Structures are given as C-alpha cells and as structure tokens.
Amino acid sequence: MRMTSERTEGEPREPRDPLYRLVKQQLTEALRDGRWRHGQKIPSEPLLARRHGVSVATIRKAVGELVAENILVREQGRGTFVLSHTRDYMLNVFSRIVGRDGSKALPTTTLLGLRRARADTETARLLRLKPRAAVLDVETLLSLDGRPVILDRMRVPAALFPDLAAEDFSRRDGTIYGFFQEQYGITVVRAEEFITAVSAGPREAALLGLRPGSAVLRILRTATTYKDQPVDVRVRLVACGAHGYLSVLGQG
Amino acid sequence: MRMTSERTEGEPREPRDPLYRLVKQQLTEALRDGRWRHGQKIPSEPLLARRHGVSVATIRKAVGELVAENILVREQGRGTFVLSHTRDYMLNVFSRIVGRDGSKALPTTTLLGLRRARADTETARLLRLKPRAAVLDVETLLSLDGRPVILDRMRVPAALFPDLAAEDFSRRDGTIYGFFQEQYGITVVRAEEFITAVSAGPREAALLGLRPGSAVLRILRTATTYKDQPVDVRVRLVACGAHGYLSVLGQG
DNA sequence: TTCGATTTGTTCGTATGTATT
DNA sequence: TAATACATACGAACAAATCGA
User: Fold this and answer.
1) Alpha-carbon span A88 to A91, nearest angstrom
2) Do B217 and A195 touch (CB under 8 A)?
3) Residue B129 pLDDT more than 50?
4) Pairwise CA distance, residues A57 & A18, whole Å
5) pLDDT tens by residue, B220-230
6) Taking the model in full, what pTM does it have?
7) A73 shares contact with chain B (CB less than 8 Å)
8) What is the 3-state secondary structure (H, E, C) of A97-157?
9) How far is CA B58 from the centre of its chain?
10) CB contact under 8 A, B198 and A215
11) Residues A52, A54, A60, A64: is their CA dihedral positive or negative?
12) pLDDT, tens only, B12-39
C-alpha cells in the first residue's frame, strides 16, 4: 500500500489525522482563499482524486464532511458546488424566527441608520478586534406580513467592508448574508445565538408597535466565516405577538 | 452483482430507496420494538452484514446515519451502542439553557406537584391523544447555583407511564428523560422548542424570585420517541437574570 | 428525440490500521 | 499475545441524473 510506505519511510507527518482529513483541510483552504467561489462547481471526484493522489473513496469522505457542514452541495449528474446563500438557504438554515403556526417568511427590511463608529469593549471582544477599532453600526427594522417584528442592530468590522454605503444596503435584493457573499466574497458558515427575554424600552417599543415594557426576545448573534473568523455581531429584539423562535434538539 | 439480478428478476421492490435505507429502517425497528435497549451493544458490523445479506460497507452507511442522528454511538475497538440518556448526554444535546458565560450545569429539581388530569384541546393535539384523554400534569422548579431559574410544567399521556407516583419522581437520580428510559424503556430522540418572551404572572414571579411582570422566556417543548410518537409537552418559564438560551446555526 | 459522455450515488470486495479486551 | 471491533483506504462495477451533440 502506497500510503503505508510513505508513512514509514518518507517524512513522518502526523499519523493521528487520517488522509481524508488532510484532503478536507486542503479543500477548505481553497474555499477560504477564494479559489472556489460560491455557486461554482468544484472539480469532479475522479479529477480531485488524481490531483491529490488518493482514491475517489477518500475524496468522497472529505467532501461528505463538508456537505454535512453545509459548505458544499452535491447534485447527482451535475457535480458538487460551493453553497450559495440563496433566499431559500438562508431561510432554512440561518433563520429560526417563525409564525405561531410554524410558517417562515422572508421579511421586508427598512434601513433605520448606518454609521461608522468605534467598537465598545464587548463588541471588540466578540469580533476579535482591537479596542475601539472602526466598525459599521447598522440598524434595520424587519417586517413580516406588513407588521414590524424584528429590530436588528448589527456591527461589522469596517475593514471587512470597504466603501460600504447606505444605498448599497437599501438597494440590495436578498438577505444580508447573501449581500456579503455577492459583494465581498464573504461567506457566513456558522452563527451562535444567545437568547434572553427583556422588557422593551420606549424607543424600541415604539418602533415595534408595542407598549413600553412589553416582553420581547433579545437575541445576541455572532456569525463566523470558514476559519471561525467573526463577521458580524447583532442584537435583535423580537416582538412575540405572532412570532417566536423555533429550535430543534436531537436528530437535527 | 447479486443485488442487481434480484432487482431485475425478483419482485420489483421500490427502486427509490437504496439498500442502506432499508437496513436503517430495520435497525430502527429493532430499537422501537425494544429488541435493543439503551446502553446495549448492537451486533458487530460483519455479523449484521451477514444477517441482512449485505456488505459491511452498506451496514456502515446505515449505522452511520443513525450515529449522525444521535441514536447510536460507535466506539473503536469496543462496538456500537444504543445511546444512553446519561447526564452528560442530556446536558449536551437536550439542554440549551446556559449561564451568561456559556457554562452548563445540571439543575437541582424540586417537585411542586403531580396530579392526574384530562388533556385540554391544545395538549391533546400536541400529544396526539383523544380530547380529554388522561394525562399526568407535573410541575417542577429547577434551580442552578441554588437559585430558582426554570419553572417547568410537563404533561405526559397517563397511558405511557402506568403506576407513576410522586415519590418515583422525587427519588429519581438523573434527568427526567433518563428516568423515562430507565423505568419505562421510553427513549426521547428529538424535541422541538418554540420560544417566546412573556411577562411573569404573580405566582410564577414569586416562584422564580422575580418582580411580577418581569420578562421571562417561555419555552413550549414537545418531545418525541423513535417514530415521532409524542412523549411529553412542556411549558417552561426561564428567569433570564443570569441565564439564557444558546442556539447554534449552520454547521451544527 | 435519442444517444453518449460526464458526474454523483450505491454496492460490493479486500486489505490494513488502531483501539479494546 | 491474540482475538475482536471499528476506522481508514483502495479498487471496481453499475445505477441514476444531467446535459449537450
């Protein structure tokens, strides 16, 4: 067996990580470096096998893990593609706010404000930036069925999004993460949300059409790209009159 | 190839589902019927292969899906086991309530009440019971670090848990789902939680040590066993002073 | 419309590595 | 040490979907 002899004679290489992990890491690097862009077809499995000097089965195992992580998509007869942040995908994977009947809908967005600012301590920590680094501070109101439901305040590193203007945001066509991907080649692959309940202040209540002091969900979200590099931090307030947050545990 | 000839000559059989799906379904039936109990080792892969008349690779694919669904666990050198609802497992898979620093801890529980009752319309619908069917109605207060944090009201079909008494509940040693599994052989494999924010009423606030009207999380959970059969319905109120709900999106 | 090339999906078989008992 | 069990890796064949000539 070829690999065996390489291991025993050649440079040792960590014997702990199997071949397919190494291949997977190389594929991930191609994604991180932007050699394969979103929506593109990656090379066929036999070609990748020859290129990496491994069998097709090994390629399939590496690709299979990236598919399980929602990074690649296989389509029989067509090829394997880098996942795009289409509306459908965002709705299914990155949004868990649903109506009381379980329905999901794409919200309409209203840009309330976009300004340059300096990161406060907490934001800098979450975005892994230096204290008081330049950030963009964007506030958006999201409506479902014509009613305001979500008040979203997002902060992103200014360095990641050069020349971003308010009009770009307003003119955009799909979701915010789709916009990041289209315009800046930044693909969000993972997000964490920490949810608490708070009473809405006067301003928030007015924007959401609630009485001041109403209980609302407060969602703190941090989103990251391929190598766990933070992309944005958001605080969302959600009016719970007709909507809530759906979470599935166990066999997801 | 043997399977090919069977497909073309023998009885047609749905060509849509591949062999490993059929094997997976048969394995799931063994679990549902209680032939393999929690914690037990299932037969080795070569043995299962012979028994089902397929190759080891096909067995591995079927078992792999059940592992991905947190139903089986593989341990190299030892075997494959039916997952047990140990404390660690419950904490990691079926609990998303964490401290503000991300810490998870096992709560201490206080039984507030257990009574037999009839299901209201909504509960009957969620548990797929007849209207006004007999249910057990259990109220529990869960404390973390000595402070009350979660007020839990659970309703289960009385038929599923014959002869259940309050003492059994109080004397139990681990989590509720672990108790179900140990005492009744019922394994919860999946749960859905619908989360909103509400203001605590006077009684709830008093139990949780909050001022009346404080914003709290309200979690409606339905849990199901192997074939999506509902096991329990719960309403939980969570005090958000030092805790919140953690959710991960994307590559889970 | 048909046919053939391409690509992923399924299934088999075999050999070897690694962890456990 | 030996036997057992899962993990990795290779190779091969055919099925099914897609797409262009």
Assistant:
1) 5
2) yes
3) yes
4) 13
5) 999 999 878 89
6) 0.87
7) no
8) EEECCCCCCCCEEEEEEEEEEECCHHHHHHHCCCCCCEEEEEEEEEEECCEEEEEEEEEEE
9) 27
10) yes
11) negative
12) 334 568 999 999 999 999 998 889 988 9
